[in-house]
Amino acid sequence: MPAVYSTDEISLKERFTFWNDVICKTYLTVDCAPVAGCPVSGRVSIRQLGRIEISEVYSPAMVYNRSNNELRGNHEEHYQLVLLLDGEGALRQDGRDVVLAPGDIALYSASRPSTFSSFGSRTMVFKIPRQVLAHHIVDADRLTAVKMSSYSPLTSMVGNLMRESFVISECTGLASQEKFVGGVLDIVGVSLETIAGVRKESSVKGNLLEKVKRHIADNIADSELQVETIAHRNNVSVRTLNRLFAAEQTTAVKWLWSQRLAASYEMLAQRKVRQVSEAALNCGFNDLSHFSKAFKREYMISPNEVLASGHRTH
């Protein structure tokens, strides 16, 4: 029988603390920040499948952030393979950002900073020890925060196997479970490497794009950071820069804008600032009115509301 943790029997006053403890003890140490105005209502069902832990998670609207503060003293050596079943989610790690829709799958590591945002979602999660995954995927760290799209036949195959994992864990012995897990992880490795385009030609462009993204992330507070500046500092033309981002169905301007908004949301939700204007300036916005309108258009809530109900780090 699975271990089940639910907020249903927990008082409204204690729900956040309960949910925060469940997530930190079950998965990894994170700072949980509830989305303003959304109830904290969630459920986790956990089973063991061979050497990996599988779970089904009904998550409230919540930002799960693992920064260097959470990494310090908490050395979890595992990966999370996440299949989004319902709702919407977003993952950020190693300068890569992916938005997940139902049927999409992504991998991330517990050993480096990450942010997983749930906008009210149901997910299937495989918690995989690092040494186990290493037998099936070489250098898995290069494949974190790479979206396996639901439109891919390989992703559909992996997703179906993950869904069946609960049944497999009950009706088979340990040896069979290990073979099943090994097969799933082999397919995951092939799928990620195919989608990520780790062949030599694609890798060069991918490395350049990651370098550009890191530059943007490191200079997010620079209000003078524009496409021309980014291109010049990375020794590429504006045309090349736009081609790099076009491969991810976006533009350099849109990606920069989304990073600034996401960074400001994190500052406000976690009360790293005292005023909305401070978050705006720290993320490269000079026009507070323009920032507030863009923020509300993106998140359907004002920055003042996020700051007012933000969660302080324990």
TrEMBL record:
UniProtKB keywords: Activator, DNA-binding, Transcription, Transcription regulation
Protein's organism: Pseudomonas extremaustralis
The keyword Transcription regulation is annotated on this UniProt entry: yes
Domain HTH araC/xylS-type: 210-309
Domain of life: Bacteria
The protein's name: Transcriptional activator NphR
The encoding gene: nphR_1
Functional note: Regulatory protein of the TOL plasmid xyl operons. XylS activates the xylXYZLTEGFJQKIH operon required for the degradation of toluene, m-xylene and p-xylene.
PANTHER family: ARAC SUBFAMILY (PTHR46796:SF6), HTH-TYPE TRANSCRIPTIONAL ACTIVATOR RHAS-RELATED (PTHR46796)
Organism classification: Bacteria, Pseudomonadati, Pseudomonadota, Gammaproteobacteria, Pseudomonadales
Claim: Transcription regulation is one of the keywords in the record: yes
Listed GO MF terms: DNA-binding transcription factor activity; sequence-specific DNA binding
